[in-house]
């Protein structure tokens, strides 16, 4: 498959091949809701395995990993002086703001990336929560902006898909093109990512499959003529191949380079993978943690889509899963798998 990855034998990349093969063989029994696993070691494709009818060319909805890709587009726009992350969001969103936009003037793009906008939000709190109500609104951007200010911007980390939704109109106004087209030209193209789907906000319900959102009810009608709904769903709308998701991780591991081309600045990479708020485990859409003593940054999507980067091990791991109704159980199973995989690396 000619998609930019070099394939290598496991044993030639400082890994225990027999042990790794055993772990991979046990996945259907230990984690039957895992659809695919891609492991990159030293820049080489080592594992490319799929289950449940998926294959290497299958597109899988990556849910909130979309936030990382959207933020990466912001980084590229910043590198090209099309915007500054210290800009007020009102510079780009005033037409969608409530009657008193001055209340939003001290929120910057950086606050959106670090989840510190201060806007009221409960991501997963049942039918009454703000996050649950978002896809039922006719205008997602205005819906987010009308939420009350609970904290001063930059003061408190609070995970919010609403913050990420605002990146689409910001990218549109700063770059003069859609998020999808900007990503295709400046990120996906250079990464040799040719097959992807980026849903718009008004496609949320038509592109959400049965069982993906337990307890939700598809609305009978939505006003699909509001222009804001044509923006890309920069919070959860991407469908990608697992091999291509791994390229995003490798890009960060390579300090923004792919095949010697500088796609994203090293400065942006360094900022992204370091704590940027009162939450010392969150950068720009990357979560910062350790596994078996190994420092790691990772991003996660609903159903336990995962992308992990282990800098010291020179390793990237991408997982696609369907733990939509078994998040807690699936997370435990996933952590066990990660720790087992780390033990296969000769240190």
List the helices and strands and how they pair.
Elements (H helix, E strand, L loop, with lengths): L5 E2 L9 H9 L1 H4 L3 E8 L2 E7 L9 E2 L3 H15 L10 H4 L15 H5 L16 H4 L6 H6 L15 H5 L1 H9 L3 H10 L7 E3 L39 E3 L1 H12 L3 E2 L2 E2 L3 H7 L14 E5 L2 E8 L3 E6 L4 E7 L5 H16 L5
Parallel strand pairs: 1-3
Antiparallel strand pairs: 2-3, 2-12, 4-6, 5-6, 7-8, 9-10, 10-11, 11-12
Helix pairs in contact: 3-9, 3-10
Q: Top keywords for this entry?
A:
3-stranded antiparallel sheet, alpha+beta, Beta-lactamase, 347 residues
Any overview of this molecule?
The protein is of the alpha+beta class. The chain has two domains: 6-56 and 241-342, 3-Layer(aba) Sandwich (Beta-lactamase); 65-191, Beta-lactamase (3-Layer(aba) Sandwich), CATH 3.40.710.10. The chain is 31% helix and 16% strand. The chain has 13 helices and twelve strands. The strands form three sheets. Strands 1-3-2-12-11-10-9 form a seven-stranded mixed beta sheet. Helix 3 (65-79) runs parallel beside helix 9 and helix 3 (65-79) packs across helix 10. The chain is globular. The protein starts with 5 loop residues before the first strand and ends in a 5-residue tail after the last helix. 45% of the residues are buried. The model has no long low-confidence stretch (mean pLDDT 93).
């Amino acid at each position: 498959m000619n998609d930019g990855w070099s394939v290598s034998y496991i044993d030639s990349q400082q890994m225990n091949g027999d042990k790794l093969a055993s772990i991979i063989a046990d996945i259907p029994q230990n984690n039957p809701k895992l659809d695919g696993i891609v492991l990159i070691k030293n820049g080489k494709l080592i594992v490319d395995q799929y289950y449940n009818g998926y294959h290497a060319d299958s597109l899988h909805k990556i849910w909130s990993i979309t936030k990382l890709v959207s933020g990466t587009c912001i980084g590229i726009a910043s590198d090209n002086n099309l915007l500054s992350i210290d800009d007020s969001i009102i510079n780009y969103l005033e037409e969608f703001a409530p009657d008193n936009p001055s209340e939003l003037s001290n929120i910057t793009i950086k606050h959106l990336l670090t989840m510190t906008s201060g806007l009221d939000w409960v991501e997963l709190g049942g039918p009454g929560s703000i996050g649950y109500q978002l896809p039922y609104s006719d205008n997602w951007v205005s819906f987010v902006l009308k939420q009350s200010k609970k904290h001063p911007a930059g003061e408190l980390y609070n995970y919010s898909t609403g913050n990420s939704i605002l990146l689409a109109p910001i990218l549109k106004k700063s770059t003069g093109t859609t998020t999808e087209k900007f990503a295709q030209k400046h990120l996906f193209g250079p990464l040799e990512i040719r097959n992807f789907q980026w849903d718009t906000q008004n496609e949320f319900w038509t592109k959400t499959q049965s069982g993906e959102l337990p307890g939700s009810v598809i609305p009978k009608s939505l006003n699909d003529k509001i222009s804001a709904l044509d923006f890309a769903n920069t919070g959860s709308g991407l469908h990608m191949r697992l091999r291509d998701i791994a390229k995003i991780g490798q890009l960060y591991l390579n300090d923004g380079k792919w095949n010697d081309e500088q796609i994203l600045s090293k400065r942006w990479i360094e900022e992204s993978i370091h704590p940027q708020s009162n939450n010392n485990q969150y950068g720009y859409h990357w979560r910062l943690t350790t596994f078996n003593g190994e420092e790691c940054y990772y991003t996660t999507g609903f159903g336990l889509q995962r992308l992990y980067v282990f800098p010291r091990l020179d390793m990237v791991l991408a997982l696609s899963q369907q733990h939509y109704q078994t998040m807690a159980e699936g997370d435990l199973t996933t952590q066990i798998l990660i720790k087992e995989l780390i033990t296969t690396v000769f240190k």
